[in-house]
Amino acid sequence: MAVTKAASLADDLVQRFEEQIEAGEMPPGSRFPTEKAITETFGVSRTVVREAYSRLAARGLLLSRRGSGAYVADGAQYRAFQVTPAESGKIEDVLQLLEMRMGFEVEMADLAAQRRSAADLANIRLALDAMDASTDVDSSVAADAAFHTGIARATGNAYFIRFTHFLGVRLVPSRQLYLQGSDASQHQKYARSINRDHHAIYAAIDAGDAAAARRAARRHIQKSIERYRAMETVVSREK
Q1: From 1.10.287.110, 1.20.120.530, 3.40.50.720, 3.40.50.150, which CATH number describes the 85-238 domain?
Q2: Is 0.70 topped by the overall pTM?
Q3: Which of 49, 54, 140, 150 pairs as cysteine with 191 (C-beta 3.0–4.6 A)?
Q4: Which of 22, 14, 18, 16 is nearest to 50 (CA)?
Q5: Could you give the angle at which helices 118-133 and 137-154 cross, rounded to 10 degrees?
Q6: What pLDDT, in 10s, does the model give residues 171-193?
Q7: Segment 80-89, tens digit of pLDDT
């Protein structure tokens, strides 16, 4: 579905305010500009402003006070980071997310190898089996996300679990993007390739070999980066 001009303008406003909140330029409790002020400053309609404010409120960044206006919510500076579906729909977006994940995944695999329990290993194994059996993108993505969640739990660190849940399926590269136009056999071939990496990570965690787990996790993310960089090169040549 095409993005409307109004939705795009609202995106721009949301991004602008999020950046100001993250930078501390709009601290908790500070007042957002009025609709009239924004329409005059940025040349947008009130509809665009209301849409932007609605999104900010949904993200927990904006609090409306009847008869007073809109204010930056308490703790908003620490909730401003989001990874939305719109931000993982382009090759460059996926590459940036993969780069961010590199350190996170490597450390997580290391700790999981040191701390995993029999129950943790069983849960990770179930996710591997589910991915081996997957026949479509949705089931493959769900199994992939469950695999990484299983590793997060094996660390015994609640913050790894929370951050993994926060990222959700954005933790998994966009297969719809990589496999667009592909048939079922291509989906299965891609899933098998990814799961070979997963089996290597699992084997290292199962063996309690932290160094091997780090190497396998790094290799897994690096291979994904290389796939998307190759895809980016093809797309740029076609333009």
Answers
A1: 1.20.120.530
A2: no
A3: 140
A4: 14
A5: 170
A6: 565 555 554 555 566 666 777 77
A7: 555 555 555 6
